[in-house]
């Protein structure tokens, strides 16, 4: 194998450094392989089979001296292992810590965005019921125009924050996609930090779920006591406000928890789930484009932007359910391919 690896490397006019870079290993490892001091792991043998375009049998069996083309190259691409150093792990964890609050605030803004429109619509209706003499009275056109303006500004700010955070995280994108090998000591450091954060993570999740449940109480009370439409509208606004706080807690705690799981390849970032994510990456973009179109159609046709804005929280709940269905279908296809 040592002679074959060296011959194939030279045939491709690669230095030991260039081959090592393509396999995500050190040059010393390639040097040891070619000198016979060590033998590559099975995943590296499969990777070299794909890279050189030869069969694994040719690399492993001494009796095969003629290059045999790889038969699995077109149907299987060997996952290369990416070595992660202490500096890379600390850098990714530190960056997520800095950005988690911003991403959480952006998520909360998305949930809160319909609230001004709902409240202004309620004030307009309240003013009309009071004969237009209330200090809180506001015209219907002004309520709709001002509410939509605030909604779009909040959504625009949230989207800008998401984009900026995503751009900063691009250099660590490989943590979500590639097979990782943590250098000595890195796993212990990451697990210790995850354990230290566990209590805070649980507290945020419990608090968020509690807020979502409590938020429904005013609406149920309004229904029980046959309250007017105005009270019901304010109840919806209160519900969205509490859900926004819950969304902040979920995203903040979830982002930091995910940063540990990415490095440890646990939770939603096992090798199987990374492959599943690749298969379902198309869904979020397509889904939210459809939701936006539905929101605009309902708004322009009914000319009631207050109720049209409720499309967003409903769509957010449906998104989780539909994404689960898409993942089930994708998981079945992956099993069939295997």
Structure notes:
There is one protein chain. By secondary structure, this protein is mainly α. The chain has helices at residues 2-11, 16-23, 27-35, 42-52, 56-60, 86-112, 114-129, 140-169, 174-177, 186-224, 229-264, 271-280, 282-302, 305-308, 311-337; strands at 81-84, 179-182. The longest helix is centred in the middle third of the chain and has 39 residues, at 186-224.
What is the topology?
Elements: H1 2-11, H2 16-23, H3 27-35, H4 42-52, H5 56-60, E1 81-84, H6 86-112, H7 114-129, H8 140-169, H9 174-177, E2 179-182, H10 186-224, H11 229-264, H12 271-280, H13 282-302, H14 305-308, H15 311-337
Parallel strand pairs: 1-2
Helix pairs in contact: 2-3, 6-8, 6-11, 7-8, 7-11, 10-11, 12-15, 13-15
DSSP summary: helix tally = 15
Shape, per Cα inertia axes: elongated
Residues in helices, as a percent range: over 70%
Tell me how many strands there are: 2
- The stretches of 5 or more residues where confidence is low (pLDDT under 50) are 70-79, 130-135
Which structural class matches the secondary elements? mainly alpha
Radius of gyration: 28 Å
> Sheet with the most strands?
2 strands, parallel
* Spatial order of the strands forming the largest sheet: 1-2
Order of helices and strands: HHHHHEHHHHEHHHHHH
Query: What number is the mean pLDDT?
Result: 81
* Range of strand content: under 5%
Determine the N-to-C terminus distance.
Answer: 28 Å
């Amino acid at each position: 194998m040592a002679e074959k690896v060296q011959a194939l490397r030279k045939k491709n006019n690669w230095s030991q450094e260039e081959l090592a870079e393509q396999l995500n290993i050190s040059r010393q490892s390639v040097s040891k392989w070619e000198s016979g001091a060590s033998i590559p792991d099975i995943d590296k043998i499969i990777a070299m089979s794909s890279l050189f375009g030869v069969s694994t049998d040719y690399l492993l069996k001494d009796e095969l001296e003629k290059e045999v083309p790889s038969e699995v190259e077109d149907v299987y691409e060997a996952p290369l292992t990416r070595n992660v150093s202490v500096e890379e792990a600390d850098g990714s964890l530190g960056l997520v810590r800095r950005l988690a609050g911003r991403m959480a605030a952006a998520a909360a803004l998305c949930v809160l965005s319909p609230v001004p429109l709902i409240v202004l619509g309620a004030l307009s209706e309240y003013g009309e019921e009071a004969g237009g003499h209330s200090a809180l009275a506001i015209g219907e056109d002004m309520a709709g125009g001002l509410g939509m303006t605030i909604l779009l500004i909040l959504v625009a700010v949230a989207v800008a924050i998401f984009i900026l955070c995503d751009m900063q995280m691009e250099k660590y994108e490989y943590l979500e996609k590639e097979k990782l090998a943590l250098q000595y000591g890195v796993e212990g450091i990451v697990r210790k930090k995850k354990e230290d954060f566990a209590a805070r993570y649980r507290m945020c999740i419990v608090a968020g779920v509690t807020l979502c449940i409590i938020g429904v109480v005013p609406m149920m009370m309004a229904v029980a006591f046959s309250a007017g439409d105005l009270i019901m509208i304010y109840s919806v606004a209160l519900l969205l406000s509490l859900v926004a706080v819950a969304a902040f807690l979920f995203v903040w705690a979830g982002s930091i928890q995910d940063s540990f799981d990415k490095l440890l390849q646990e939770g939603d970032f096992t090798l199987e789930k990374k492959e599943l994510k690749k298969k379902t990456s198309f869904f979020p973009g397509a889904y939210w484009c459809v939701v936006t179109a539905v929101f605009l159609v309902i708004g322009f046709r009914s000319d009631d932007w207050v109720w049209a804005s409720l499309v967003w929280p409903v769509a957010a709940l449906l998104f989780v359910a539909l994404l689960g269905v898409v993942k089930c279908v994708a998981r079945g296809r992956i099993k069939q391919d295997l």
